Amino acid sequence: xxxxxxxxxxxxxxxxxxxxxxxxxxxxxxxxxxxxxxxxxxxxxxxxxxxxxxxxxxxxxxxxxxxxxxxxxxxxxxxxxxxxxxxxxxxxxxxxxxxxxxxxxxxxxxxxxxxxxxxxxxxxxxxxxxxxxxxxxxxxxxxxxxxxxxxxxxxxxxxxxxxxxxxxxxxxxxxxxxxxxxxxxxxxxxxxxxxxxxxxxxxxxxxxxxxxxxxxxxxxxxxxxxxxxxxxxxxxxxxxxxxxxxxxxxxxxxxxxxxxxxxxxxxxxxxxxxxxxxxxxxxxxxxxxxxxxxxxxx
Length: 298
Known about the structure:
Helix content: 40-55%
Shape: globular
Distance between the termini: 30 Å
Strand order of the largest sheet: 4-3-5-2-1-6
Order of helices and strands: HHEEHEHHHHHEHHHHHEHE
Mean pLDDT: 84
Number of helices: 14
Structural class: alpha/beta
Strand content: 5-15%
Largest sheet: 6 strands, mixed
């Protein structure tokens, strides 16, 4: 299920749609050290880099003092994707991810995975026929979010939603590095083999999935970037097409955005999926290649 773990660390926007279709579980977790935080700066510009998990258990404590200070000091929040219009994301999935006359979803996975697939769908509250109309990448997106939800991770409590509420309350601007159309387009453009591999990787035993998600959460809350990086590099290299589309191209584009933003004064808090800030092709490494140093401050 390694590719599935990679996908869980990378995908962001689809949780918006699934949250509107399903309920949320409850759990709790506390941060002994807190998630990792980096700082980039010059004479009149400061940029913080913060890795997120897009869905979390209820009552997860993540805003440790260094992170809380960075948020308070920042005048702008930058997310992978603005979270304003989940209904538009759902409509885009319908436009890009639904095709007529597809084989039933169960027929697109090996026999040994069909019982697990059926269990995932049955627990979602979504009509099974809906999944049969989805292309493999779109089904993988929704199944990934269902795995989070059924493991007790709430889309409503994801870091993006919480950060958005904080900055809106402070009347500070919020920007997006990408649009929903771009994010879903990356997946829609994947080669058929990569899409099928992605689908297969998301259909896994619920207990195994829960254990892996809890392990991911622990590493993130502990600021254990080394552990994240070690597994992340190994996992992502199993699918070069997916790594290229979801990691390399996006990190390169974001590095350019940061380089451009450093030309303007102000303090910016950038929050992107934690997987983008770990591993040999992390955003920090791409910034380093441009002569921009990101210093870890938590």
